[in-house]
UniProtKB/TrEMBL annotation:
The keyword Ribonucleoprotein does not apply. GO terms for molecular function: transferase activity. Pfam families: G_glu_transpept. The keyword Transferase applies. Keywords: Transferase. PANTHER family: GAMMA-GLUTAMYLTRANSPEPTIDASE (AFU_ORTHOLOGUE AFUA_4G13580). InterPro entries: GGT-like_enzyme, GGT_ssub_C, Ntn_hydrolases_N. This is Gamma-glutamyltransferase. Coiled coil: none annotated.
Length: 544
């Protein structure tokens, strides 16, 4: 059984775990986590803090999220201090526009979904997520929640080091790939001095401030059925896009029932498909059947790698909008199929393929309040700044989530109008097997996310690390076939042992490729929170 305040061994944390009683906000940017903390101090709850933090992140971390992206949330609402309550899931991912068909993509000259321009743009869900969370569970006025983000956009902020680096990398890529009228606005909005800002330089965006004001004043209605929607529609028509006002007007976020897998006396919770959280659950189900001792045991690491490869190959083949899935969540997590996949793990590295079960650039934040409410929230433009399409005069950078659609008519995730694609962003939540809440966790970073979830959960439960140490510990990631990226810091003998088993080990000294996460764990007996935040970015925890 997980002890919430386990020691930080054997990996020494770069920073100590953070403790608090009355509230905590863990985010990838210090200015954003402070915004959330201030909302708690004003009497807001964990949901209010999450919304305010998320809005601030669209300003101070545009390299990972924006107003034109998608969001998911897992929300624990406490009934009492004894740990009773309920976990709620919100899917605020958007659909493909009605005009975006495989034929239209082919006629535009593409053989697969592109990464930039209008073609991969889907309906954004972030503004609707903020409004819906506030409507159902918030305490403070919606305009109060967005006021700090508006101020940051209007008055400006100093750009942090990691974000400056990502911004400069995006500019270099975009100058090569963004060459049409639809994407010209990106440079006007995000390189107003002619280049990306450097660390410590001041950046402001009045256009985004005005857009956030319109969202705040109308509880996001302007974005979907008002002036902002009309501006998006007009720019799309003018520059050859597929997104229309009718697509925006028809959108609503969806409350969903979270899915879970049992893991050594705990339940690990994820958003159901179309999110890829199912991949993490499938991998943990496979791993639960093995004896696990130390992190540095070659047999343990080999099994982790193989379980993740098997789970991912299934996820990439089958996960999409649930009604379009060939195989159900229940069949993919079923005992018989889990045993079948586990039996494939031998002494050598596999080149995985999907099984056949019985038919049937992102930001993450975590918040908690004095009443025991906790939120696991994630939002993203998918690939860095997204599609490169920025609606003039609004600061709205539109996501490129549609890049994940397949154009193969036999694939579960084939593009179709009004359909939601396979989604990489996933919030996580941990409880004991009796339902006692422990807390929110997440690791942002594209297809690294379920791999990060598996590793931090095992660090907590199997290896006895506290939240900060669980995030600090070196990570690996499956990169396709037998290729494994491994972070600098793993013991050399362990890396050699994996290579001897047939894994193609590729040591990577750049920590940015291994995800960036946050975690808050609540001691059920004392109500004290223990938080960790990612050393691979400019992260921070603010406490009340």
């Amino acid at each position: 059984m997980l002890t919430p305040f386990s020691q930080a061994t054997p990996y020494t944390s770069q920073r100590s775990a953070t403790y608090a009683k009355h509230g905590m906000v863990a985010a990838s940017q210090p200015q954003a986590s402070q915004v959330g903390r201030d909302i708690l101090a004003q009497g807001g709850n964990a949901v209010d803090a999450a919304i305010a933090t998320a809005a601030a992140l669209t300003v101070v971390e545009p390299t990972g999220c924006g107003i034109g992206g998608d969001a998911f949330a897992l929300v624990w609402i406490a009934d009492d201090n004894a740990g009773n309550g309920e976990l709620h899931g919100l899917n605020a991912s958007g659909t493909a526009p009605a005009a975006l068909t495989p034929q239209a993509v082919a006629e535009a000259g593409f053989e697969s979904m592109p990464l930039y321009g209008w073609t991969p743009v889907t309906v954004p869900g972030i503004p609707a997520a903020w409004a819906e969370l506030s409507r159902r569970f918030g305490k403070l006025d919606f305009q109060t929640l967005l006021a700090p983000a508006i101020r940051l956009a209007r008055e400006g902020f100093p750009v942090s080091p990691v974000i400056a680096s990502l911004w400069q990398r995006a500019e270099s890529t975009f100058r090569e790939h963004l060459t049409d009228a639809a994407t010209a606005g990106w440079f006007e909005t995000f390189t107003p001095t002619g280049r990306a800002p450097r660390a410590g330089e001041w950046h402001r965006c009045e256009d985004q401030a005005q857009t956030l004001e319109a969202i705040a004043e109308t509880r996001s209605e302007s974005f979907y059925r008002g002036e902002l929607a009309a501006r998006i529609d007009a720019f799309s028509r003018e520059t050859g896009g597929y997104l229309r006002a009718a697509d925006l007007a028809g959108y609503q976020p969806e409350w969903v029932k979270p899915i879970a897998a049992d893991y050594r006396g705990h339940k690990v919770w994820e958003i159901p498909p179309n999110g890829q959280g199912l991949v993490a659950l499938m991998a943990l189900r496979i791993l639960e059947g093995f004896e696990i001792d130390s992190r540095d045991n070659p047999e343990v690491m080999h099994r982790q790698l193989e379980a993740m490869k098997l789970a991912f190959s299934d996820g990439q083949a089958y996960i999409t909008q649930p009604e379009h899935m060939t195989h159900s969540v229940e069949s993919l997590l079923g005992d018989a199929y889990t045993r079948e996949r586990r039996a494939l793990i031998g002494e050598s590295a596999l080149d995985p393929t999907p099984g056949t079960p019985q038919a049937g650039g992102t930001v993450y934040l975590a918040t908690a309040d004095d009443d025991g409410n906790m939120v696991s929230f994630i939002q993203s433009n998918y690939h860095g700044f997204g599609s490169g399409v920025v609606v003039p005069g609004t600061g709205i950078a539109l996501q490129n989530r549609g890049h994940n659609f397949s154009l193969d008519p036999s694939h579960d995730n084939v593009l179709a109008p009004g359909k939601k694609t396979f989604h990489t962003i996933i919030p996580g939540f941990l409880t004991r097997d009796d339902g006692t809440p422990l807390g929110p966790f997440g690791v942002m970073g594209g297809f690294m996310q379920p791999q990060g979830h598996v590793q931090v959960i095992m660090n907590l439960i199997d290896f006895g690390l506290n939240p900060q140490a669980a995030l600090d510990a070196p990570r690996w990631q499956w990169m396709g076939g037998k290729r494994i990226g491994i972070e600098h810091g793993y013991p050399a003998p362990l890396v050699r042992a994996m290579a001897e088993r047939g894994h193609d080990m590729q040591i990577d000294h750049d920590p940015r490729g291994f995800g960036r996460g946050q975690m808050i764990i609540r001691d059920p007996d004392t109500g004290i929170y223990c938080g960790g935040t990612e050393p691979r970015t400019d992260a921070n925890i603010a406490v009340l």
